[in-house]
Amino acid sequence: MNFIRKTNLSLSRFTTIKIGGIADVVFFPFDEKGIMEVFEEIRNEKKDFFILGGGSNVVINDSKLPYAVVMVSHLTHHKFHGNELDAEAGLSSSILSELAANNDFGGLEFFYGLPGSVGGAVYMNARAYESEIAELVKEVTVYDIAKNSFLTIPKEECGFEYKKSIFQDNPNYLIFKVRLILRPGMKKAELWKTMNKYKHDRKEKGHYTEPSAGCAFKNNREIGIPTGKLLDEIGMKGYQLGGIKVSEKHANFFVNASGGTFKDYQNLIREIKEKVKLEKNIDLETEVRFLPSGLI
Questions:
Q1: Pairing of strands 22-29, 65-71
Q2: pLDDT category, 293, cuts 50, 70, 90?
Q3: CB of 236 within 8 A of CB of 246?
Q4: 80: three-class secondary structure by DSSP
Q5: Greatest CA separation found in the chain?
Q6: pTM value?
Q7: Which of the residues 54, 59, 211, 248 has an alpha carbon 20 to 30 A from that of 15?
Q8: What is the 8-class DSSP label of residue 12?
Q9: pLDDT category, 285, cuts 50, 70, 90?
Q10: What contacts 271, CB < 8 A, 6 or more positions away?
Q11: Which class for 162: exposed (0-12), middle (13-18), buried (19 or more C-beta within 10 A)?
Q12: What are the Cα distances from residue 104, in Å, to 83, 108, 131, 203?
């Protein structure tokens, strides 16, 4: 077998916010063959399933989950082709940034200190410090679950927009790997200087102090005000509902302050959406994903 199978496994340990119920079965494929074997078992058992990457930007239902969960965390291979880099979906964002910098390639500095994995970054078109992963993508290889085959999709067909890609609208695609075009001729020392600056900035904003799923809402680019600032203006910093609290340092970060639950997080999202609509007449769009039930 080219995968690991675990039963009755708690998912909370696999998420950055430390919320998640016990799944019937969790699969960890090692490679392409393992992915195909895993989905053969899922089809044979007629199980509903969902895919989990690095566990950031997601909040998982904390009830008993009669699902098969496919974890990509063991898909971590990488290979350089000149200034192009193949990276599998489970490779961490920070390690990817280190690999590039240590080989004098630029472009991934903004990734350093970002929680999560390559697959999730492509899925969400991860963005920070005015950079986004789509700028570097050449092509994405996916496993088409419905067709039981692998498919390589060029960047032009990935539908990348602000924190958006076609992969969010196609549940039949499991992102297996991405090929990135990096910037050659860079100096390792300068790259690391920038990377450490970004990581320090993240620490100053409280990104690592308490369990969090990252930004709760997308920025509304039409109004030109970051959502964190918007929530700060209406007095949301420090507000707590159940065990989930709006961060004191960054109002668009909701932290698991004291045994927060899936329902606590969903209720806080709903309450803040309503408050912003009432006070600012702005409709916020949720950035975190709720699994297995989708966005609210």
A1: parallel
A2: low
A3: yes
A4: strand
A5: 56
A6: 0.93
A7: 248
A8: G
A9: very high
A10: 241
A11: exposed
A12: 9, 11, 19, 25
Residue 204: count other Cβ atoms within 10 Å of its Cβ: 10
To which residue do tokens 């969902």 refer? 50
Which two three-digit tokens encode residue 153? 């999709």
Q: In the predicted model, is pLDDT for residue 295 greater than 50?
A: no
Name the amino acid, one letter, at 140: V
The one-letter amino acid at 256: N
Other C-beta atoms within 10 Å of 288: how many? 23
Reported confidence tier of residue 296, pLDDT bands at 50, 70, 90: very low
Q: Which domains does the chain have, with CATH numbers?
A: 3-71 (3.30.43.10), 78-200 (3.30.465.10), 209-291 (3.90.78.10)
pLDDT digits (tens, 9 = 90+) for 10-65: 999 999 999 999 999 999 999 999 999 999 999 999 999 999 999 999 999 999 99
